[in-house]
Amino acid sequence: MAARFKRILLKLSGESLMGAQGYGIDVNRLNDYAQEIQKIAQMGTQIGIVIGGGNIFRGLSGASKGFDRYKGDQMGMLATTINAMALCSALEAIGQKARVLTAIKMEPIGEMYSKPKAIEALNNGEVAIFSAGTGNPYFTTDTGSSLRGIEIEADVMLKGTRVDGIYTADPEKDPTATKYDEITYDEIYNKGLKVMDLTATTMCKENNLPIIVFNMDKQGNLLKLMSGENIGTYVHN
């Protein structure tokens, strides 16, 4: 079966990696992710991935506890790199080629990111995992995802979360919240919906990169989405 998109940027949340254990990396969840990603790679999809670091350290929450924001964000970048290495290792263990590209110099942990290196990896059938956000403090991994998605000329950004799309309100707090099947960037701004931070959302809008927000923690969802099923919320201009 042909994949719905030829090249994607998959944004994964660090929090999801901790599974039920509350901190760190749940190996079962990590392996589930690796298998899902391999299945869509086998469909011929070129896959770039940005993964958060919230399961290990989050710069913003560190800043609220007295950490210097600049250093806190750098610690967050290192956390994303730990997750990227773990995912790369899990993919390689099941025979899926993968490569870690970092936004700050960290050889031999990962190669320094550049667009040509990323495109080369994708064209070689490798899953390209982009770590350390944008390499700058004060930017989130959402912004890192938007930036990398635009740079690698992805057809879409798939934002894997714990909920199955965008709702009128937080479905975990408001039982009357209803889900949007699709929504425009302007509607997100006007309704004040929290999808990603505003910098990331604006970058996607201005560069015409659509987003699909979906529940990555439900096994099989990524494959269903890539096979054409109507899963999640489609965000577009």
Structure description:
The protein is an alpha/beta fold. It contains nine helices and eleven strands. Strands 4-3-5-2-1-6-10-11-9 form a nine-stranded mixed beta sheet, sandwiched between helices. A two-stranded antiparallel ribbon has the order 7-8.
Q: What is the percent of helical residues?
A: 25-40%
Low-pLDDT parts are none
- What is the chain-wise order of helices and strands? EHHEHHEEHEHEEEEHHEHE
The neighbouring-strand order within the major sheet is 4-3-5-2-1-6-10-11-9
Give the amount of beta strand, in percent. Answer: 15-25%
Radius of gyration: 17 Å
| Biggest β-sheet strands, sense, barrel | 9 strands, mixed
Count of individual helical segments: 9
- End-to-end CA span: 28 Å
Described by its quaternary structure, the protein is single chain
Structural class: alpha/beta
DSSP, total strands: 11
- The rough form would be described as globular
Overall average residue pLDDT: 94
